[in-house]
User: Fold this.
Amino acid sequence: MAIDYQERIPNNVDLAENRTLQRALEHWQPHFLDWWRELGPSDFLDADIYLRTATSVDAKGWASYGTVKMPDYRWGIFLADAIPDRRIGFGDEYGKPVWQQVPGEHRSTLRRLIVTQGDTEPASVEQQRLLGHSCPSLYDLRNLFQVNVEEGRHLWAMVYLLHAYFGRDGREEAEELLARHSGDRNKPRILGTFNEPISDWLSFFMFTYFTDRDGKFQLKSLAESSFDPLSRSCNFMLTEEAHHMFVGETGIGRVIRRTLEVMKELGTEDPAAIRAKGAIDLPTMQRYLNFWFSSSLDLFGAENSSNAASYFATGIKGRPDEANYPDHICRDGSFHLEMPDGKGGVAAEDVPMRNAMNEVTRTAYIRDCEIGVKRWSRLIAKAGYAQELKLPSERFRRSIGVWASQPIDPEGCLIPTAEYQAKLAGWLPSENDRSFIKSLMHRVTEPGKMAAWIAPPERGINNLPVEYEYVHLH
Ligand code: BYC
Ligand code: FE
Ligand code: FE
Assistant:
């Protein structure tokens, strides 16, 4: 169905047909806009930004580009088209028709998952709110705002589900989504990574590469859900997610390209010399990567999770790309899970397959992360250097699951606790790294010009030149 932009809340769910729901959402809308003004991108309310907006939900032509001021962006409710006669794809109810309403017995579980998903979206906008002031170019500034408005829309997607299917509790949860704040001591966001500050653009690129990619895999899992409106919401959100990860992958790639240029120019790999030239040395990038990758791994939950088993059994949350697995029931299978043996070594246990679904999803995520990291390392190798960027072990610096709080080095080896404590700071961004990166963060706003620490992108947005004025500041 086409998206109706005449409505106060653009939508393709026939909102006008359900007055009560429409009124409830129109009541929430000004609260959202207040939140955006207060905790969304700081300043820039008046800037004209070249943004894409969804005009339809089909794969080919959903995006239309135009100049918009952010507060006038048309946030709305867009579900992917329904699949006729869709059937439950996994778990104990396999093959039965999907649910168009929430079954009573799954109500609180589904609400909690939708709230957790919804909570991350405004959290990321809050985390990124000051970045505009130090943008490395207008191109990057525009990409930041594109990501921000879409995360705002992802919040709308979850709030719609809460309002439409969860009655009064749903409406209360929708208010709470605007009341918790990233990093707030009293009312923090739900998941760890979304309370970490993103105070520089290197962190932003790492976040969009690693943490938005958790979004991709969680959304894929929820897109398998038997609760059809959730599935359709997530399917459309996934089409927007690709750009967020693109921003991360190309952002880090461009930082590397610039660093390699400086290394060539100076004829040295010495971090101090590279820094003196205003570029970011590769070991510093590795430390940022270690931080954001390990934090994002925790977002998949525990390796052995009775929650995950029950989501799968009941059909609430599947595996990403469930259709690619041969067995959709997984009642008998087991998963070989390694864990610390408590004596400084590693033990293994066979756990029921369904309990290992978080780990299955995390493994698919890690494989996807590898692709970009390999591409970055190829850039370095092609420039003739032996340094490389790599993913630390999935066991390194974990806070959730069997490896939580274990003294493990980036190679994945258990090491003596004292050695771990002495070395950990060196594997992560230090105060010195952070203040150096911060010293590079100066706003560049001349069309086509780039900050000295990042190379220009290979192409502009929507076939426009890189020099295009993607954001017009007043
Ligand atoms: N931090 O049994 P377990 C995105 C909790 S990103 C804090 O393993 P489960 C985006 C857990 O809640 C995608 N707490 O849990 C990206 C549980 O608590 P309770 C977001 C954590 O349920 C960038 C307990 O530990 N979407 O869209 O199997 C920009 C035991 O764990 C953490 C979703 O997450 C953590 N990291 O798995 C913008 C999808 N990890 O119940 C947006 C919805 C676990 O004992 N969420 N815990 O109090 C879920 O599917 C599940 O809640 C999780 C956890 C996969 C997160
Ligand atoms: Fe999102
Ligand atoms: Fe995203």
Notes: The first strand starts at residue 48 and ends at 54. The pocket of benzoyl coenzyme A (ligand 1) is lined by residues 113, 116-117, 120-121, 124, 151, 191-192, 211-212, 214-215, 218, 298-302, 305, 307-308, 317, 358, 400 (CB under 6 Å).
